[in-house]
Design the sequence.
């Protein structure tokens, strides 16, 4: 019940009519009814979204072009789907599909995670898992990480698909073989006749079957670019690196995965002839270690089988390594290395690191790694010593070093491969003219513009067309769009985190980077409450 001065006045007026309503002017003793107060209508705006704490912003990109990639992202923790990752509204986030390459998330209240495993798949790309840090640098409230995927048509990648029909019961009536072209990227898989195809629950799989084999050139950066994160455990006695790879998947027409076999199948991969074991280059007849990576758990395991080094292909400078297995996944032949115990850092000189930081990429047959350096960082560590061990980066590792900004602009590129274990000198050169702008977000009820909602807790991201999104920082509803390439057009996405009258909670607009403050006015869905 709403009671105010207007209501009391109405009650007083009503009492006068009640007293005089016992008779009428024509003496017919008609009763005059009491007047009915109109209902009181109140517009109730939604509660303003709470200001965000830690925000982790990941961007799935093409490793060659840095353009964003539509992808499916799954969060894993200790071999199972994570229960500690949530979206910015606190809703559980296990698997999500992104149409713009951007996935923004945070950690559930009370969780103490320092890292989460992210499995990323996309049509036309080799899927990969990444280790994403959940610890922000001091003074920072957001973490920005790119997740580069390698196209199946990229240089150094070989990919093939073979179709076959398997009758009811899942038993192959003839061999099924898929092999890429011979060379440094070659790989193959052969399923003999009479083998039963099984899913993860060991149930037979039949029907139209697709066998997909992907190989990569381990003499270049191609192989390392598709090796999933953390091939070594942090406490492993021996550190190894991948020296040959084969990604083998098998599905039926319904998308069901074949994960196991009743009997072993044969898999092969190319291994560089300069691979060293015990201080000597490998030769035919040698045995190498074998590891497999399960994309459904995000975990590596050491196989009991080993890789036999076969014949030398003198043209490609690689040996054919082969092994038998009863399951399908990503396989890597391995060789031990002396780990880079000092880690990798960059000694920056030249132009200042911009406000939103820079991305450092290492690419070679020794390492494929992407990290971030910040404008206010007291150090410029790219790979910690612990992470170098997990990734199998050796003390003698070399790599091409590239430094880019959030717009994809190159600030530094090494002259070929350089030694990277320890400190790498980097001279930064800003290739463009930067500007920045304030961007103000306001929101009012669609049915009462005088009722406003504080947008301090909105999530604002911006980007050039087809490039990764950057999270804007701000307070009081005004956000800073930093490191804009002057004169360029940017897409701005606002997650208001409240229902909007246009549907959903997200609005988009474009701005021109000219240093002029911009704004967006949002129309919110507000509840109408009627009282008496």
Sequence:
């Amino acid at each position: 019940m709403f009671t105010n001065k207007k209501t009391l006045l109405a009650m007083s007026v009503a009492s006068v009519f009640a007293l005089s309503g016992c008779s009428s002017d024509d003496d017919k003793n008609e009763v005059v009814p009491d007047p009915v107060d109109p209902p009181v209508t109140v517009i109730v705006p939604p509660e303003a979204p709470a200001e965000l704490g830690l925000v982790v912003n990941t961007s799935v990109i093409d490793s060659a072009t840095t353009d964003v990639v539509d992808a499916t992202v799954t969060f894993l923790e200790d071999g199972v789907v994570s229960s500690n990752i949530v979206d910015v509204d606190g809703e559980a986030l296990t698997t999500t599909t992104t149409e713009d390459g951007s996935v923004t998330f945070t950690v559930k209240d009370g969780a103490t995670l320092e890292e989460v495993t992210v499995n990323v798949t996309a049509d036309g790309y080799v899927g990969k898992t990444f280790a994403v840090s959940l610890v922000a640098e001091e003074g920072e409230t957001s973490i920005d990480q790119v997740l580069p995927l390698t196209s199946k048509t990229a240089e150094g990648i070989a990919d093939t698909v073979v179709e076959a029909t398997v009758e009811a019961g899942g038993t192959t009536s003839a061999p099924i073989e898929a092999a890429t072209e011979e060379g440094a990227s070659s790989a193959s898989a052969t399923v003999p006749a009479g083998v039963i195809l099984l899913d993860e629950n060991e149930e037979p799989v039949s029907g139209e079957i697709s066998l997909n084999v992907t190989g990569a050139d381990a003499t270049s950066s191609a192989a390392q670019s598709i090796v999933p994160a953390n091939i070594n455990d942090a406490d492993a006695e021996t550190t190894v690196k991948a020296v040959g790879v084969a990604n083998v998947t098998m599905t039926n027409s319904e998308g069901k995965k074949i994960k196991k076999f009743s009997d072993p199948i044969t898999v092969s991969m190319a291994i560089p002839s300069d691979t060293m074991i015990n201080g000597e280059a490998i030769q035919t007849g040698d045995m190498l270690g074998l590891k497999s990576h399960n994309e459904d758990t995000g975990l590596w395991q050491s196989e009991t089988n080993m890789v036999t080094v076969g014949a030398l292909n003198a043209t490609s400078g690689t040996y054919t390594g082969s092994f038998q297995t009863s399951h399908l996944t990503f396989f890597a032949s391995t060789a031990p290395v002396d780990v880079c115990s000092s880690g990798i850092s960059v000694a920056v000189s030249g132009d200042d690191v911009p406000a939103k930081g820079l991305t450092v990429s290492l690419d070679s047959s020794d390492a494929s790694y992407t990290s971030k350096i910040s404008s206010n960082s007291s150090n410029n560590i790219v790979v910690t010593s612990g992470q170098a061990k997990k990734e199998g980066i050796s003390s003698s590792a070399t790599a091409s070093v590239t430094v880019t900004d959030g717009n994809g602009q190159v600030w530094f590129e090494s002259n070929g491969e350089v030694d990277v274990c320890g400190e790498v000198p980097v001279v930064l050169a800003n290739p463009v003219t930067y500007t920045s702008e304030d961007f103000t977000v306001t929101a009012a009820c669609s049915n009462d513009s005088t009722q406003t909602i504080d947008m301090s807790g909105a999530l604002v991201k911006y980007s050039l067309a087809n490039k990764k999104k950057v999270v804007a920082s701000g307070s009081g509803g005004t956000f800073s769009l930093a490191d804009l390439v002057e004169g360029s057009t940017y897409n701005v996405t606002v997650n208001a985190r409240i229902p909007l009258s246009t549907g959903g909670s997200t609005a988009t607009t474009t701005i021109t980077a000219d240093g002029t403050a911009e704004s967006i006015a949002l129309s919110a869905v507000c509840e109408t409450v009627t009282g008496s």
Notes: The longest helix spans residues 5-20. Helices lie at 5-20, 222-226, 385-391.
